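Sequence in, structure out. Go.
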Amino acid sequence: MLFNSFSYLVFLPVVVLLYWRVPNQYRPILLLIASYIFYSAWNPIYLLLIVGMTLVNWVFGLLIAPAVHWRKPLLVAAVLFNLATLCYYKYVNFIFSSIVELFHLVQLPAGSISGNGGAQISEAWHLNVILPLGISFFTFEFLHYVIEVFKGGQAVKNPIKFAVFAAFFPTQIAGPIKRYEDFIAQLELPSVFRIADLEKGFVMVLHGLAKKVLLADNLAIYVNYIYGAPGAATNLDLWMATYAFAFQVYCDFSGYTDVAIGSALMLGLRVPPNFNVPYMASSIRELWHRQHISLSNWFRDYVYFSLGGSRCSRGRVYINLLITTGLAGLWHGAAWHHVMWGLFQGLSLIINREWMRFYANIDWLKKFVHSKLWTAIAIFITFHAFCLSYVFFRADTNAIALHILGRMLRLWYAAPHGRPLFLSTQGPLIAPLIPFIIAVLVLAHILSEFLRRNAFWSKTPRPLQAIYCAFLIFMMITLMPDEANRFIYFQF
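Output:
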């Protein structure tokens, strides 16, 4: 069930109404039933997967908590179970194809792996595995749970509440990744209806859907057109499509997050934020404190810190960063170009650390770095570095990504083969509006932090709020595609 579908627009109000009508003690049961219905709407048979993983991890938690001598083996077993499940559904074909490519690279005997034999072996090793929706997210929540219980956290004894933690429908498919202590604590307390939460949640859902339908889906038309045939595009088109993709991902995923947080708020529950105006960050390090916050924190806590974090030698710290970001890239997709995207982030973090070390002992430069002028320059550099990394994320292969990057960096050949496609009549109808849309999104990014800090929405008269919401609904009905497009992060 997609958030931007008619079925969800019926499903959510029904669940909210029933939730506030039933007694407190039955609300977790209602949430669990609703969450399983939500997941079953995609593929009913895969409901067995999330139910099975929930049962196994609940038992592991109960066994780990009181154990003395067997706590560590039980934790290892729990971690291996979750990772093995994730790897089977998400990475098994990637692993097989990588092995075939490796055999070919080291030039094994011709009949064994190369040529038609290689294709036959690759096809024979390919498994027709359907990637379950949200498996990357709820697997990480299960891993967080068993690790925290091992560290001394309280195991969840109530199976219904534990099942709701993993299956909670607003965050089930694409996060944010919840912390069980915070979420279970809310289920333990009596829910109190607040009209302010209902109104705020409704507006967040509306904003999220508007980001998706009005912005992300329209930007995607141009991005798909250019990246579908990059050889036919001018260098300026490649830059414009990369800018568009950066904002497509932001509007798509932050839009999903807004719907998730808003839906939870309408039920009186709070889930962690995931975005905080990331493209206003003045460094890559700050950007990852503002973008996909729950995932960044997960990799920091359970991968980076486990490797030693920053409490190591300088070289080891940089290796830790590359391992962590490389795995984060692999988490985003079972392909080497996603790994390269992650390594790009690690390299950017290393450069950022080296830059901080460089100016730390130069007084005049240190003073300049803390000036508003440098902050503006740093935001510009950080945004463009992140956009360049997105070429690896969006391109189909590393070879295509490197080709596109090579052309983009030849700034002196902006349009060597004639007019850019976004200024011609050859492209999609949205193409001429792309520069305008990007400019508006940049301006909105700059203003949003200021408006939020000054509580602009809460100070707006209610009639104007109603007119604004009605306008968004009208625009979405008018411009919504014939078929609802899946959110980007549903594939992860």
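Check: Residues 400 and 435 are 24 Å apart (CA to CA). The chain has three domains: 6-193, 196-275+419-491, 278-408.
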